[in-house]
Amino acid sequence: MTLPNTLSLPATLVESAQSLLAFPEASEWSAAMARLLLAAVLGAVLGVTRQHLHKAAGLRTHMLVALGSAVTVVTASHAGMSSADTSRIIQGVVAGIGFLGAGTILKADSEQHVQGLTTAASVWTTAAIGVAAGIAPLWLPVAGAALAWFILGPLGVMERRLQKTSDK
Fold first, then answer.
1. Per the domain annotation, does 91 fall within a domain?
2. Structurally, how many domains does the chain consist of?
3. Residues 6+ apart with CB under 8 A from 138
4. Which of 85, 89, 102, 129 is the most buried (most CB within 10 A)?
C-alpha cells in the first residue's frame, strides 16, 4: 500500500477555508469598521463621564462593552443569520451584560443604601448602544448615547447638588 505524496482536501473544505479567510469588499469592510468605531467612540463618551467620577466601570469598560456588543451583532449580520437568530444573539447580549452590571452593585450595611445601580444601568445602556451601532440606522445609537450622556453627566451633577441640599 502506497501513500499519496500530496494531501487532497475535499473541495467544500477548501471553499469553506477560502470564504473564511477572504477579505470583504472595501464598502462592506468600511461599513463594518464605521459601526465598530462608532460603538467604541460612543462607549468612550459614556465611560469618560463614569471615569471622571472614579466609578467601578469607567472608560475602557464602557468602550469594550459597546464594542463587544457591536461586534456580536455585526458578526451575526455578516454571517447571514436570520433575523430570528440575530434576535436571539441580542437577547444573549442583554442577559449577559445584566450579569456584568450586577457585579457592580454593592449593598452597604444600611438596608436602604445600595451602591452601583447607576453604574450597572450605564453598562447595560452602553451594551444597548453597541447593539444599535452594530445593526440599526446610525442616528439611533448616537441619539441614545447623547441621552445617556445627559443623564449621567448634567443630570448627575444636578442630582448630587440636590442630595447635598437635602442632607443639610
1. yes
2. 1
3. 34, 35, 38
4. 129
